[in-house]
Amino acid sequence: MKLELKSIKYSAFASEETHCYQANLYVDGKLFAIVSNDGRGGPDLEDRHPKYEGSGTDFNAKLADIGAFFKTLPNIPSEYIADGLEQALDIWCGDRLEDWLVARELRAKMRTYFVIQVEGKAGIFTAKGLTTKTDGGWHKGHRILNHMPFDDALVIWKEQAQ
Predict the structure, then answer these.
(1) Handedness of CA 52, 103, 92, 155 (dihedral sign)
(2) C-beta of residue 15 within 8 angstroms of C-beta of residue 106
(3) What does pTM read for this prediction?
(4) Which of 32, 35, 96, 143 gives a 20 to 30 Å CA spacing to 117?
(5) Mean pLDDT of 35-48
């Protein structure tokens, strides 16, 4: 089963205990549902998307299939729960939202700064006004994330900047 979140709308000011967001959920490449959270600590809501081609009964059956799919996956390790946390759609959506927020943060930094990793130092640094064009590889002890494919830069950003 292939799940994707698209058309994410996020509201930082309304996020209190959880992220306040709304997104379209695609299942196996087809628009299925609108998932959302009001940001006040409750679970995500899954509503049938108006453009979903099935009936309400089909929607509920597919939602049950998605729940069954997550039950086949191994539990998420947790220091607080002995057997780990059971996987579920709202946890998956929360993880995708976190990925989207981190990618958005990196894109914003890259619009204004050069984002640099320095060899032998932990963390990521920013600078303005660099004119050197690189291939994104190591050059004189540093590499510029702006000059590499975004997905590769994102992996480094997640490892070093968090």
Answers:
(1) positive
(2) no
(3) 0.85
(4) 96
(5) 94
